[in-house]
Amino acid sequence: MATDYSEKRNFFRMNIECNAEYTINGSGNQKSGKVSDLSGDGISIIADQSVAPGTEVRVLIQPENDVTPPLDVVMEVVRCEAQDADNFLLAGNITRR
Question: What is the CATH number assigned to the segment(s) 14-96?
């Protein structure tokens, strides 16, 4: 079986859609967003505001059941793309777990 080397990531990216809470740069202002994908070293969320690259964003995902522990990470934004007039895709590297 041939290996596809077009994807050069260190970790497999999972396309998921789940609710998350996020806080920008330690502001204490927690907002709701949606996770769009997740890997071992990166995460993308849909947020309601633009965020400059280099900004730290804390992301908290609370699972719907008690079997899976919550995911609480800090990401450094590397890309911010407008999805429409009210939503932005924030993509970043996980810097703290």
Answer: 2.40.10.220
